[in-house]
Amino acid sequence: MSLDVHIHVVRCDTPQCLAAFYATVTPGAPEGTAQQQAERIGWRITKHKPFDVWDDPFAPPEPEDLCPACQAGRGPVTATGTCCYCGGRTTVRTGTCRWCDRPQPEPARDRQETPQ
Question: Would residue 8 count as lying in a domain?
Fold first, then answer.
């Protein structure tokens, strides 16, 4: 059996932030599927707006896509790890991400049901 999926990466736009979300997208999925998946787990995804002639060309650009850690003011993520929300490093003692402070799901274990 072959599973045909593509991995799309959503990255945080905050300078020096290493946060990334890896979305699995099936071929033929609508445009923006990866961004919708990121929004569901707490990323702020801003749709790219067209340039307006009244925009200040010297103003620093606002980050458009923000990870949960940068939104909460705990970013930028500077060390990557296993956090499934922002890609940051988790602490073993608490089971939460060091940056976005979200609890991590329990790892999947092979469960064999015993017949009763």
Answer: yes
- Per residue in 85-110, pLDDT (tens digit) is 999 998 888 889 898 988 888 665 54
Q: What is the mean pLDDT of residues 27-56?
A: 78
Q: Three-state SS across 43-61?
A: CEECCCCCCCCCCCCCCCC
Pairwise CA distance, residues 40 & 21, whole Å:
11
DSSP letter string, 8-47: EEEE--STT---EEEEEE-TTPPTTHHHHHHHHTT-EEPP
In a domain, 54, yes or no: no
Tokens coding 4? 């045909």
The total domain count for the chain is 1
pTM above 0.85, yes or no: no
* Residue range(s) defining the domain that contains residue 25: 1-48+62-106
Residue 55 lies in a domain: no
